[in-house]
């Protein structure tokens, strides 16, 4: 559609609303915090608009939320730690925004999360050890992540696609990556990773779509 203007706060009066999709419009302004008072809301899709401001911490009140897509806007600020209260959340796409700060450690509370896409933001800090073990898809490429990949990567045993390209990661790829036996795609290109390429990568049977280790400092 071609809807313009702000998202009306009055939508919060639709107390039985289960899905709200305003994607692919020309909406601007901030996301009204009142929206997150909708206790029955399971899907919030606001992608590809011109929304700005912050993601309200009130998002933690939306405890039945299953799918959250805010990608392709101009949202800034940090990812609120309250997102960890969303036990039912399965899918998060916050890519292509202006988010800063770190990935909150509280994300471990999203115990049913399978899809996490944060690419093309300004996110800093290291990749947390507390990523939910349920994750199948992770894309944090084109950010400003630093630090190294820790042994905790081995706990992501359901992971199929892991995209870390275009960051400032350093250190080695840990041997524990062998535990990611379902991994089909690994992209760590354009970082500062070093050391030997772990032989364990050749022992992951599912790794058949793509392996990108380019533009690093492997020996």
UniProtKB/TrEMBL annotation:
SUPFAM superfamilies hit by this protein: L domain-like
Compartment(s) of residence: Membrane
Principal location: membrane
GO cellular component term of the entry, any: membrane
Pfam families: LRR_1 (PF00560), LRR_8 (PF13855)
Keywords: Glycoprotein, Leucine-rich repeat, Membrane, Repeat, Signal
Name of this chain's protein: LRR-RLK
Organism: Vernicia fordii
């Amino acid at each position: 559609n071609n809807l313009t203007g702000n998202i009306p706060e009055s939508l919060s009066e639709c107390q039985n609303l289960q899905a709200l999709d305003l994607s692919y419009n020309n909406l601007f302004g901030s996301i009204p915090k009142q929206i997150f008072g909708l206790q029955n809301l399971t899907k919030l899709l606001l992608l590809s608009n011109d929304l700005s401001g912050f993601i309200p911490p009130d998002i933690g009140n939306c405890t039945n939320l299953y799918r959250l897509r805010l990608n392709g806007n101009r949202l800034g600020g940090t990812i609120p730690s309250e997102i960890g209260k969303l036990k039912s959340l399965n899918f998060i796409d916050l890519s292509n925004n202006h988010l800063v700060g770190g990935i909150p450690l509280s994300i471990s509370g999203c115990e049913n999360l399978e899809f996490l896409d944060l690419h093309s933001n300004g996110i800093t800090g290291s990749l947390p050890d507390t990523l939910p073990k349920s994750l199948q898809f992770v894309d944090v490429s084109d950010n400003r992540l630093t630090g190294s990949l820790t042994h905790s990567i081995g706990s992501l045993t359901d992971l199929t696609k892991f995209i870390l390209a275009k960051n400032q990661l350093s250190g080695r790829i840990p041997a524990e990556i062998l535990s990611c036996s379902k991994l089909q795609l690994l992209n760590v290109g354009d970082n500062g990773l070093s050391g030997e390429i772990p032989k364990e990568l050749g022992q992951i049977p599912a790794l058949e779509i793509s392996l990108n280790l380019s533009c690093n400092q492997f020996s």
